[in-house]
Write a structure and sequence with these properties.
The chain is of the alpha+beta class. The chain folds into 4 domains: about 5-140, Rossmann fold, CATH 3.40.50; about 150-185, no CATH class; about 190-330, no CATH class; about 340-440, no CATH class. Helix content is about 20%, strand content about 35%. It has 7 helices and 26 strands. It starts with a strand and ends with a strand.
């Protein structure tokens, strides 16, 4: 078997990109030498050298650690397989195409003499968010032209037969748009999924996959991301399912809300990752119809995110031309209060244990009740305890303010926590229907 392309990479750091390129090139008819672990035992195998000699193109995946072994004077160069591959490709004047991954813009200085000439080679600009453009440029400008088009001829014949047979199997008047849509729908069977996280990954998956007509693809996402699939659905009504993905911020461990993005299939093994939306979302989004289009409704809050004035807003997004587009937004209004203590009162304080006292006659008996308000730095929130009727009631729920409403329940003024969390007196305690204050 004669090869067209040889892909050289370090397994740690370069495997995912190399595998993705291999899958796409093989799909497009190229014969690719990619997974050669079976040849990497003992001496540097002559079969490996033969593969490089057969290939016209030599793709080199370069990440920030690719040449660590090469530059290590104590490492045996004969066991540096990537260096041996590259040196042999240079020796035989192969078309070497470097692909610099994120964070790498050039080759390191001090490369040994047998591979230093690789610094004169150029390749397409790589960007994982615009992988389609990168791959198209790689094929058009850097790889030798490939003439094996049998697969596309077969597909063209198949489509032509469908068009010829369609009038005989239906009496319905069919437009060319209907035919194209039917063909696309019949040819694309797509399923998005995540694999079970490893023991070191925690509770959330870190990789997103799609199986399209039996072929498995790994979606190119940042390596440090944690994700969860919310729903697979044809969000842009183009006849092909998309997927809504949750970006679990800090992998669920840093007291911040999450964000979301869409992934769409563009055909020919290419996927598009949309812009993220929702900077700090705590509630599960709602998928619902909006003006005939599927939409995603989120409730966004900056609780615990910063020390700006708190807000809670409802936002609606749709998927349009591969982008998440906001079509509606509505900010919640705070309930007015008679008196309050806000988190901003603590922002310029050096003492993290400072307590602010607020007094108010909650039950109109002529005696002021006392609120002791403290600051919860991690969430930029206030907590309070209340001295009432000789007892102390403690609130463990945080909010950006605590205030006293003009409204009363059972003769006691309501307590407002945050924008609209209302605690009402039930005759024994203050409760919001789900939680109540702890009696100390």
């Amino acid at each position: 078997m004669k090869y067209d392309v040889f892909i050289s990479y370090r397994r740690e750091g370069g495997y995912d990109t190399a595998k993705h390129l291999n899958d796409l090139l093989v799909r497009d008819g190229y014969k690719v030498s990619f997974d050669i672990d079976t040849l990497r035992s003992g001496d540097f195998d002559t079969q490996l050298l033969s593969r490089i000699e057969e290939c016209k193109d030599f793709i080199l995946i370069v990440d920030k650690h690719t040449f660590d072994r090469t530059l290590d004077k104590n490492f045996d160069p004969n066991k540096d397989w990537l260096r041996c591959e590259l040196a042999h490709a240079l020796k035989h004047n192969k078309n070497i195409i470097p692909v610099f991954l994120s964070g790498v813009t050039s080759f390191p200085e001090g490369l040994p003499a047998d591979i230093v000439n690789v610094t004169k080679k150029n390749g397409p600009e790589y960007n994982r968010y615009y992988f389609n453009d990168f791959y198209a440029t790689l094929k058009k400008r850097f790889l030798h032209k490939h003439t094996n088009n049998y697969k596309y001829i077969i597909i063209a014949i198949f489509v032509l037969l469908l068009l010829l047979l369609l009038p005989f199997v239906t009496n319905k008047k069919t437009t060319s748009t209907d035919v194209a849509a039917n063909i696309i729908e019949s040819l694309v069977d797509i399923k998005f999924y995540c694999k079970e996280p490893g023991e070191s990954d925690g509770f959330f998956a870190k990789e997103l996959f799609a199986k399209v007509d039996g072929y498995e693809y790994k979606i190119d996402l940042p390596s440090d991301i944690c994700i969860d699939i919310i729903e697979q659905k044809d969000f842009d009504l183009d006849g092909i399912d998309d997927v809504l993905v949750e970006n679990v911020q800090a992998c669920g461990g840093n007291a911040v809300g999450n964000s979301y993005f869409f992934v769409t299939y563009q055909g020919d093994g290419f996927f598009n990752v949309s812009n993220e939306f929702g900077n700090s979302v705590w509630e599960q989004p709602t998928i619902e119809d909006w003006k005939g289009l599927p939409s995603v409704l989120i409730v966004e809050s900056n609780t615990g995110l910063n020390r700006e004035e708190g807000y809670v807003a409802k936002e609606r997004y749709i998927l349009k031309q591969g982008k998440a587009v906001r079509v509606e937004t509505a900010k919640k209004q705070e309930i007015s209060v008679l008196k309050e203590v806000r988190n901003s009162a603590f922002h310029n304080e050096d003492d993290p244990d400072k307590t602010i006292t607020m007094e108010y006659d909650l039950n109109n008996d002529g005696i002021n009740e006392i609120f002791h308000v403290k600051y919860w730095d991690r969430w930029d929130a206030v907590l309070f305890s209340l001295v009432l009727n000789g007892k102390t009631y403690d609130c463990h729920i945080g909010g950006d303010r605590v205030g006293i409403s003009s409204m009363t329940t059972n003769g006691y003024h309501d307590i407002i926590l945050g924008e609209d969390n209302i605690f009402k007196w039930n005759g024994v305690n203050y409760t919001n229907g789900e939680d109540q204050l702890e009696i100390l």
